[in-house]
Amino acid sequence: MEIKYRGAEAIVETRQWLGQKVIFKTRNKRGYRHPVLEKRLVKERLRSEARIIERLFSHGVKVPAIYSVDISKSCIIMEFIDGVTLEKALRGDNFNQYLDETAKLLALLHSLNIVHGDPTTSNFMVTDVVYAIDFGLSSVSDDSEDRASDLRVFLESLDSHHSEISGREIFLSHYSEWSDSGPVLEALKVLELRGRYNLMRG
Amino acid sequence: MSKIAIGIESTAHTAGVGLITSEGEILSNQRALYVPEEGGIHPREAANHHSEKLPYLFKAALEEANLTPDDISLVSYARGPGLGPCLRTGATAARAFAYSNDIPLLGVNHCVAHLEIGLLEGATDPVLLYLSGANTQVIAYAAGRYRVFGETIDIGIGNGLDKFAREAGMGFPGGPKLEKVAKGDELLDLPYSVKGMDLAFSGLMTAAKQKLDSGHSLSTVAYSIQEIAFAMSCEVSERALAHTGKKELVLGGGVACNSRLREMTAIMTEERGVKCFVPDRSLCVDNGVMIAWLGLQMMSADYKITEKDNEVDQRYRTDMVEVTWR
User: Fold this and answer.
1) Domain extents for chain B?
2) What's the gap in Å between the CA of A18 and the closest CA on chain B?
3) Is A184 on the interface with B (CB under 8 A)?
4) pLDDT of residue A93
5) What mean pLDDT do residues B65-71 have?
6) Region B52-64 average pLDDT
7) Domains B4-115+283-320 and B123-278 share a fold
8) Which residues are B223's β-sheet partners?
9) Which of A23, A111, A190, B215 sits in a 20 to 30 Å window from A75, CA-based?
10) pLDDT tens-digit map of B140-153
């Protein structure tokens, strides 16, 4: 058993399970939260995460396969994606291609009426292709503003971690290849203006 | 050689004048708070308040520290972000003091000052959870700037608390008043709105008002607001800690004076094995000391003052400041 990552939400471990290496994602208790809120959030997020991954997987989207869910232990057992985070991958030479794939992946998610909720560069894994992981904050929505919020989260994490590459234009140009992207990009403009004291961007 | 800076704060409700040495010794922290008779802050009224109070604050600060203007090597003022009339009043006072005493003048970023004063507590490379009236941001240093990792996408947490308190018939400032009445352990079902590392508070405050109108007691509603709003703030700062891999959290802003928030961040950081730095309440709220301290930090890196540095900028964002002093 090896702890891969202690996130804000959950502990992610790799374990041997039925003869293969898998991911155990366990939501741990947050001592600072009111017990009622704690219960509400954990249950909501666990169920929604499992359902959404299942739905995406069945549509052939690159996400980890779910093997088992244990609500009493707040735990999801899923496929281990053997790769590096997009955050790391973007430091290499192929960032153009990875941004392209990530943009298309996010557009595909959106076209299936799923918003990721936290698509930072740490929440994509790169093997020979790009996978989306960590659907802990995802939800079912076809609202342009929710989709735009996804884009904003991604662009912000790109900006704060990879300020050296001008990924914004590359990412948005590939996202806009999705035929229904128009209203989302409009909503993004509105959202970015609404950010407090936010400056106009090019 | 030890240097002394004077700092002038006037971004919103607070007029403040502070004195600090380059070793971090605080010599004086004078503050005066504008309290509106009714409703929210009126920028011009607040600016009038500041122009009335600032001369006395300068005098009181120098007297407390037993200094004359000759002892001071830098005048630092809050250039932004903030309310235009308030900023201009503070900048005018700073200019008058600097030019009449022939001292260098430097306008600094208010949000960055909140972060830098937290470093005085011993933090070296923290995530800052900055919760005030108008500003609600999670900030951390990366590649030459203080980057905003998460922030409110509608209203500042403090303005939300103030607005609810006002509608519930309590005066300004609303946050401390709600803290006093918040009691019990019953949690009402209110919207919990975290989007990635961003937050939204207006839906929460509207729903809270509806709960109050439908007969729930003020103490229970106030308690529930605090539980939800602060849990959201804790969650985004924890996300930023996880995302950046940093090992320190600093609290800043007026809302960071709240005891329940302090308790929650203490639990969160302990569970994560992260150090939590909480400046004294007089340094969490808006104050002149932090403005003076940031000015000294910038000058320590041989910052070259230009004519731009005596202006104000209402929309002076945290990530616009090039950080050369660390």
Assistant:
1) 4-115+283-320, 123-278
2) 30
3) no
4) 85
5) 97
6) 98
7) yes
8) none
9) A111
10) 998 888 988 889 98
ipTM surpassing 0.85: yes
Please say whether the beta carbons of A57 and A66 come within 8 A.
yes
CB pair distance less than 8 Å for A7 and B235 = no
A118 tagged catalytic: yes
Buried b (16+ CB within 10 A) or exposed e, A33-66: bbeebbeebbeebbebbbebbebbbeeebbbbeb
The DSSP bridge partners found for residue B136 are: B131
Residues in chain A within 8 Å Cβ distance of B143: 163-164
Distance between CA B231 and CA A136 in Å, rounded?
17
Radius of gyration of chain B measured on its C-alpha atoms: 19
Smallest Cβ–Cβ distance between B238 and the set A8, A156, A195 belongs to A8
Q: Which domains does chain A have, with CATH numbers?
A: 2-79 (3.30.200.20), 84-194 (1.10.510.10)
* CATH architecture for the domain at B4-115+283-320: 2-Layer Sandwich (3.30)
- Backbone Cα Rg of chain A: 17
Cα B53-B315-B194 angle, rounded to 5 deg:
110
**Strand, coil or helix: A49:** helix
In angstroms, the separation between the Cα of residue B317 and the nearest Cα of chain A is: 7
